[in-house]
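Explain this fold:

***
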Amino acid sequence: MTLDPFYPIVDSAAWVTRLVPLGIKLIQLRIKDMAEGPLRMEIRRAKAICTSYGCQLVVNDHWKLVIEEGCSFVHLGQEDLSKADVAAIRRAGLKLGLSTHDDAELAIALAAEPDYVALGPIYPTVLKKMKWAPQGLDRIADWKRRIGHIPLVAIGGLNLDRLPGIFHHGADSAAVVTDICRNPNPEAQTRDWIATTRQLRPAIPA
């Protein structure tokens, strides 16, 4: 499969509703702490918007709800992966994205035969405290050599100025949180990301 080169990550269906109509084709809904009922409604709202605009929705972590709500793509961190029923995820026909930060995690991820591998943080990030040092561009090239045809998502500290470097070193898609959601004008920044990523790495439909 292939991924759109622009991969925003947001924490609410409200953000999905706000940004997807601008032309986004791939977005992740990442909600960590919410009761099941409201979380289910967030997933439903996000799915409805994405379906209307031809956008691929990826839901972080909550694989059981993803199956129940008829979504098609789940992203798991390493801790989430260790607790997940990967066989059930595959039986449901879900695509699976996995986070990696070091060699051991990459080996675990590849054993699960993911549909994409994410590597991060590429640069220092203010989103959350990380026990891993910034990976840097050379690690992107190394990961891409090791995963072959599997799409590689770069994440962590990315902005428009850093996109040429990550794509040149082998990333297939650039995941972004703060450069969109903490920008004074998220809509304008989203349009700039769409234009820049598609110029640097035109997406091929899966």
